[in-house]
Design goal:
Length: about 550
Amino acid sequence: MHRLPARYSAYTLSLIGFVVSIPAAIAYPTWTLVAVTLALLSLLGTYDLLQRKRTVSRNYPILAHVRYFLESIGPEIRQYFIQSDTDERPFSREQRAIVYQRAKNVLDKRPFGSLQEMYSEGYEWMNHSMAPIDIDNSDFRIVIGKTCKRPYNASVFNISAMSFGSLSANAILSLNTGARKGGFYHDTGEGSISRYHRKPGGDLVWEIGSGYFGCRNKDGTFNEKMFVENARLDQVKMIEIKLSQGAKPGHGGILPAAKVTPEIAEARGVAAGEDVVSPPRHSAFTTPLELLEFIEKLRDLSGGKPVGFKLALGHPWEWFAIVKAMLETDKRPDFIVVDGGEGGTGAAPLEFINRLGMPMTEGLLLVHNTLVGANLREHIAIGAAGKITSAFNIARTLALGADWCNAARGFMFSLGCIQAMNCHTDRCPSGVATQNPQRGNKLDVADKSERVYNFHKNTLDALSNLIGAAGLKHPSELGPEHILRRVSKNEVQPYMDLFNFLEPGVLVDGHTNNPVFEKYWNEAQPDSFEPPAFIVKLRDTKLH
């Protein structure tokens, strides 16, 4: 006999109490109120289990209503009972509210003006135009891989990498169903393509990490035949090589044997019930030149689909070495996704989460500037990810040089994630980040996929309103002149003055006054990721 989970305790006690209180109420009329109360609680718990819109209620019948009650009190009191914007959770209440409202098609307007932070250092905004434009269609798109046989016409807002195994089967189904309806892509994460990615038929970007899941030999090396089988699926639109990720750059992952179910093993091409290890680096290439050869190989094997890579920026000379390899060989990726060090949904050591990897703003600027300075920018599309939950987040990211944006946690919130911070414990109350079927199966695919679709659509509608107010017709027209930041109480600067933007071709010509490029560009070598000689010399001096 299966034991009922502890989270059903309130419901179970209500039912037992109601049954026990009936004879007491008959014998003693004063017990009638107790019996009625327990009956109502039992009915409420039964309703919680049967309804399909609130996964937390299905997983925590009756108990979930305590949380909902505190939420309903109002922001001026709720902040003392729920978390405030000063807590240590990755997203503020304000950011989560935006996602929830748009996912549920709730009115996202508010009275009484703007945020108090407008006069605080670091506050950012977008300037409007005296000649605004009314934009009819907010389905903004860009073409990736223009010179490929099978270029992809992508939305400017998509689902970032989250693997089946990290997320539940119903979460993957909901994300891909929403992506199919909205016409945007769903990145598989390095866990490869599962049956739950395939079933709805939404566009996929297949992410290949150092474990080569889905295209892997038994010894963990790359398998061409398996790659072709997956890469040539019509549903797969692009191939993304993961060099590193925002959550834990430079760190391999371990999926414990207990979590390697037959379904996960099927998707990843590994043995069920055995530990699965992702090494910290790839075995298919060891130098920048070999990386570009690998990209060319995958593009050919996939039938001419766009192939690129994702990375969280680290040592600048390693990135410069890749670009120098592009210039030397005339081989290049079709796209690059910059994953900010502040981003990522995967569990990682605290130091990796907080102190490793370049933030998205600095990483994106370095990638964009390098490609501009090397006369490569027009050939390579740039995506970016890192805590993007709103239309303004998208606008500022595109103004910094990106062509499109990805979001992970924003779409998790649209599924009903309440940021309980239990992703790594398998006890996710919303059924999103768990492999426990008793929890994950409570997430209703029909309802949550509609919320995924709504979040995407309403966010792009808001972006349409923003850029129209700025007098622009398409997000691609956004530039560093459109976004401003308060750098002190008495000073405001537009991005174009705040950041250093390179002129086209200056790296090829050898003329730049940017200290990062001056120090590392000339020292970077296309055939090696090794540090420059002066760095090695400094290390030797310190060691001896």
